[in-house]
């Protein structure tokens, strides 16, 4: 028997890693050190020959799309020989490592033993090489053949009395082709239970944008940032770590005179001096200071900030009519201005200052930058999307842009910066628990079956369903569900309720160890690897944050002869479930991905002549009405001003507001190492960043070990043993690393409308470590 799970590693015994070395945070980024880190990590994982072979193909038009973030590539004519960043190099080396995890590894380690290990240890052992099966009651995973594994899943699915008892999760690294066949499989099977990582990521952005401008994506291209925007406001995003190639684009903007403002509770190094490793000036010279203005907003204070900013713009317009607002744009293209303006005029400054943690003067200075700029882009990421009021905050940003017509013209617009390299494409392909009827109708017309119309479960609802015994089969195409989701202990025991859990993965992670009564791990090809099918070598396609669709071709020999592509795994399951005479041509699609692209062309708008256009170097841009022609596909055909009363999470006396962030040495739940160089942390991840005054108020000193206790309507949760680090966070706000503190995030604490877990605002108190 696997036995009861040992204590979650989220709450391990104190280890040396609880006592990292702590130095001052950095005020500049990249430079020689960034290159040295890429080289060191690549050599250790891949060796010299493989390093060169792979790194020179990253983001090249004949190479593969970097598996790290979703930042856009420059046009083909502007690409560098080395078009990757330190963290892209880590992601590539992590995938292309020479280390392997095969049958012997699983024979040597029981599941219980593996479950006691941390995220870094689990993944650093190397690539999975063959399908593994955990039989009911077994203590160890044992090898299983592909045919047997596929038949097993097929049998378990067919045995369900309701297709809605199955859940199909997707992580955002999945290609367009794999995502399309995967959503087709779920819908052909009869369910819309297609939760994805986006539910925890930019769901709030999609919800706010589609409601206000009629499209769930950003309305900006890379050249808007590099060549046109006069002011770029970066809110709740840490580009130095999470989108390092954005620093190059920001530098280009600065060199032509653009201004940059950063809104963030933490003074991230990426806002300081940028030493571009591609230029002599960056390497040896003074570098370029990126942010001109830094607003240390309180955690969850952004709605109040943007409401205050909008109020200021309306006030200044009232004082000098005709000088501030774009009346022509508002009259022609927008609804709801009068109601929004009335609401702003009624706001009072003391409340706005308290909620945002910023002074009227600081906000006024930003308004002055805004008025001086003919075009403004606002970029944001997880700092905004994972709060109770996240959707309202992003709607308020849309208001801000609409006021001065900062949308649908060069250098202006909203730009949610996506996380996973193809998370945006997966949505375009239909990975969503509530795709619109028009999509489902086209799917029906293309394939000749009736897709289910009842909405499915998103991530949080899937966890609830598994917890409550309403789901039997959990299938994950990538990702690390139990570590990425909130309320770790609840989620882990929810998984244990399933009859079967299946993970398609490149590397071993905790989700494979918090399994259902029976479990499978199916090892797949990564982006870097050659994909050969019956009709020859295949490529896949992806869509970046700026709606560019392009091809990705792996070059390396696959890590093991037994690896299958995600497309092959999904179409194989389609054949097992529906046979070769099905209305869906599973086999033909698996043999030749061009066939999948043909179907996509018929089902998904904007993909005409897919095959030809994606063959162009750099690919093609998807149509976006607001971007292309200022047409807003909302119900009224106009962009909508909305009224969003400023709110912020209430923090009782003696409590603090915790935000959860990524360290420089991780990609989500993949922990490359234990350092966070830019924030001055070395050799440990269980740290809590606390303001000096809050430390004093709690009778604590830098270096003390504390337990973090979160407080919610349904009770308390505890994360043990974190080292306090004195850090310039705003008063009352603390920060710690995801996923170690996910144990603190209540499952029922989610954003209004988007149902995204509120990972960025958790009410906590501190206790001496137990
Ligand atoms: N190297 C690396 N790259 C990545 C990832 C990774 O883990 N590692 N993850 C990928 C994914 S999936 C995503 S979604 C993105 C994530 O990219 P980011 O969103 O940049 O990543 P986070 O670390 O979550 O950081 C959020 C930023 O928001 C700030 N913040 C926290 N709370 C608030 C708040 O209330 N208001 C404001 N204004 N700011 C706040 C934090 O200080 C931090 O700077 O990156 C992608 N790229
Ligand atoms: N507290 C807190 N929680 C968060 C967040 C936060 O900011 N704070 N951020 C949220 C966000 S933005 C996101 S996107 C989610 C991320 O949630 P997920 O996408 O579920 O998690 P990842 O850590 O990106 O998944 C890593 C695993 O993916 C597998 N993998 C890697 N490459 C491939 C591949 O090519 N194919 C396949 N099949 N598998 C592969 C590997 O086995 C690896 O272990 O986490 C969310 N959770
Ligand atoms: Mo994400």
Automatic annotation (TrEMBL):
Residues in Molybdopterin oxidoreductase domain copies: 127-502
Keywords: 4Fe-4S, Iron, Iron-sulfur, Metal-binding, Molybdenum, Oxidoreductase
CDD domains cross-referenced by the UniProt entry: MopB_CT_ydeP, MopB_ydeP
Molybdopterin dinucleotide-binding domain boundaries: 656-762
Cited Gene3D superfamilies: 2.40.40.20, 3.40.50.740, Dimethylsulfoxide Reductase, domain 2
Cofactor: [4Fe-4S] cluster; Mo-bis(molybdopterin guanine dinucleotide)
InterPro entries with a match to the protein in the record: Asp_de-COase-like_dom_sf, MopB_CT_YdeP, MoPterin_dinucl-bd_dom, Mopterin_OxRdtase, Mopterin_OxRdtse_a_bac, Prok_molybdopt-oxidoreductase, YdeP_MopB
Pfam families, A to Z: Molybdopterin, Molydop_binding
Stretches the record annotates as Disordered: 1-32
Family named by the database record: Belongs to the prokaryotic molybdopterin-containing oxidoreductase family.
Protein name from the UniProt record: FdhF/YdeP family oxidoreductase
Lineage, highest ranks first: Bacteria, Bacillati, Actinomycetota, Actinomycetes, Kitasatosporales
